[in-house]
Amino acid sequence: MKIATREIVREIDRLTIEKYGIPGLVLMENAGRAAADVLLENFAYAGKVAVFAGGGNNGGDGFVIARHLISEGLDVDTYVVSNPKKYKGDAFTNYKALKKIGGNIVELKDNLRKYKQADVIVDAIFGTGLDREVTGFYKKVIEFINSQGVPTLAVDLPSGLDSNTGYPLGTAVLADVTVTFVLPKLGTSIYPGVEFAGEIYVADITTPNFLLDDIPYELLSSESVDKILALRYEDTHKGTYGHLFILAGSPGKSGAASLAALGAQRAGTGLVTVGVPKSLHSIIEQKTTEAMTEPLPETDIETLGAVSVNRTLEIMKERKSALAVGPGISTTDETREFLYEIIRNSTIPMLIDADAITLVAENPKVLKEAKVPIVLTPHPGEMSRLAGITTEEVQADRVGVSLDFSAKYNVYLVLKGARSIISTPEGEIFINTTGNAGMASGGMGDVLSGIIGGFLAQRLSPSDACRLGVFIHGLAGDIVAHENGEVGMIASDVANALPKAISQIPDMDQEAVTRIR
After folding, report:
1. Whole-model pTM over 0.85
2. Can you give the pLDDT at residue 115?
3. CB of 224 closer than 8 Å to CB of 201
4. How far apart are CA 343 and CA 291, in angstroms?
5. Residue pLDDT, tens place only, 260-284
6. How far apart are CA 320 and CA 257, in angstroms?
């Protein structure tokens, strides 16, 4: 499902009204009617509803909602947060209509004591256009709504939430349900906005669908990744499904190499070879049964280094179809030299993770010397090193940071975390919707490296490999959580659940994340 930024919403509204002749009043009526229907569906017990209406079009939506709820026999109080004299256009039309039918409109005038207890609150104060911090009486109203202890339905977006970053602009309404229009908003598709929005309903307000075709932002769903899954035919063999070469491991970190191999195998990769420093070879042979292993020349401290380059390049040419490098390889100066030479000389698509990301962060320009597509899979701390900013700055603008880095260095990037973000050099963003807190344990990233690397080896495009990889990785985690609980989940549990995750995708609910009206 496509998702929209503040700027995209503005342009869609402008084109809908100005170019395609659908009046704003019609769009507002459709929006308000849809929101009222969701309220009646979810809160059938509600006899009394309080609508808090702001001064713009979001407030106009609130007036339409109030009017429809009144027609359904509910007792509705509409609290005007701003000065009614400031209403104009469609919002003013609906303000007058509500007043003419006898709707109870209360002008708060900085006095919240006028509020009468309700069963449900409708938040129609601010919409997607808010881009500054909420202060003064508006802030008091939002905090008041949050303190009431009754369900809240937000109109289009919880008031106070930044529609692009998902962060509160000073404060924001904590909604139980959000009825959003046309498309989910970026800010409610990522954390912390997800927690403010509650359950999201997407309402069709008759915006022309073709206006959504070229939007480069998307929420991943079973429907979108099902299109990527390749059918397996009877007349195939292991070579059909690619050969992944994994470069991983150093003293004390052999587990990372074996987990990456397991992830690739469970994702359906035909062949996997794990290249490690030769002193770790006997250990890796014991840890991996189905994967092949390759002892590589090593440095005096038993890591990969310049001495490893020639043999590694030779192996890569032996019918390998993709490369994954980084899990547990160490961050020594000699390993950095090795990695940079591999990036410069690789002839197959490659994934860079973990220690390799830390080394790349010392000179990101080396990425521009690559001759093949590159995928990076950093967690926020690694992303901060890549981008040269703090982890807090990364988390404050995960989408923007990802897009900038992908464009600057022509790479595909998976910024891991709750609602992992995939960015492409072409400016696309894909947000994952699977996974859970049980996956916050060591080795999960190594398994993901193997999965995405395995899909690259199976000759999926970098974008498809990333999208399918993060989705089934999270879905496998959800399966493990459902069967065993979140606490105590380990990376190999997730890897071993991958076949079940892949088999479930075609039959999954296509609206598992947002409900569409």
Report:
1. yes
2. 96
3. no
4. 24
5. 999 999 999 999 999 999 999 999 9
6. 17
Contact indicator for 348, 317 with CB cutoff of 8 Å: no
Cis previous bond, 297, omega within 30 = no
| Rounded (10°) angle between helices 24-42 and 57-71 | 50
Stated as kind and residue range, the H or E segment containing 134 is none
Query: In terms of residues, how long is the chain?
Result: 517
Pick the CATH number of 6-215 from 3.40.50.2300, 3.40.190.10, 3.40.50.10260, 3.10.20.740: 3.40.50.10260
b vs e for 464-496, b when ≥16 Cβ sit within 10 Å of the residue's Cβ? bbbbbbbbbbbbbbbbbbeeeebeebbbbbbbb
The residue written with tokens 């703090």 in the block is 390
CA dist., res. 111 & res. 84, Å (int): 15
Q: How far apart are CA 431 and CA 413, in angstroms?
A: 12
Task: Return the sign of the alpha-carbon dihedral for residues 473, 474, 477, 483.
Answer: negative
Structure tokens at 453: 């690397």
What is the per-residue DSSP string for 222-277?
HHHHHTTPPP--SS--GGGG-EEEEE---TT-HHHHHHHHHHHHHTT-SEEEEEEE
The domain segmentation of the chain, as residue ranges, is 6-215, 223-229+236-516
Average pLDDT over the chain reads 95
How many Cβ atoms sit within 10 Å of the Cβ of residue 181?
29
Contact of 31 with 45, CB cutoff 8 Å: no
* CATH no. of 223-229+236-516: 3.40.1190.20
Minimal CA–CA distance to 5: which of 111, 192, 169, 164? Answer: 164
Triad 244, 250, 255: Cα angle to 5°:
65
Q: Per the structure block, which two tokens stand in for 311?
A: 């043999």
The CA distance from 273 to 474, in Å, is 25
489 phi-psi bin (left φ>0, alpha ψ -120 to 50, beta other): beta
Q: Is it the case that residue 517 has pLDDT exceeding 70?
A: no
| pLDDT given for residue 508 in this prediction | 81
Decide: 207 and 27 in contact? Cβ < 8 Å: yes
> How does pLDDT run across 144-172, given as a tens digit for each residue?
999 999 999 999 999 999 999 999 999 99
